[in-house]
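Q: What would this chain look like folded?
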Amino acid sequence: MAQNMKQQGKAAKVTASLKWKPIISIAIVCVAAIVAIAVILNQKPAESQPGTAAVSAVKDAGIVIPVGDISEKATFYPAEIDGTSLEVIAVKASDGTTRIAFNTCQVCYSSGRGYYEQDGGVLVCQNCGNRFATDQVGIKSGGCNPWPIFEENIVLADGNITIPYDFLKESKQIFANWKL
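A: My prediction, written as structure tokens:
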């Protein structure tokens, strides 16, 4: 009888420890899922940004943007220059002119999160929340707005706007901390 009670005691301990295993397993899975979701939400790959264009012509020529592809919806042209990722915004202003700028804020660029996303007719800095009219892209310098690329830094020929490689290389330092 004493042995029978010992076996029942062992069985009760095993049963009690088995009750916690599913709860612990579920808790571990939940924590892992929460961490995975947090990591995914904090990442923002360029491919996920609406209006991101594939840049096939980043070589000695620089970034080539077909003028016919530019609309009121901002298009973001990613490039990698000597291991530094950068991006250019191209958008048509309400007066029909083409506006070009780097997709980094002149004030917030060093934070690494000073990039823009379009919300209607404005670009919104993802670091400070400043809203900047697309009509002002590329013409206004200074302040919390996209870093302009002026006419003297582009080449317009054969229906394309080309941002020369050398200019991109000179400008890449503003993307040193970029986290897009």
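The domain at 46-175 is CATH 2.102.10 (Rieske Iron-sulfur Protein).
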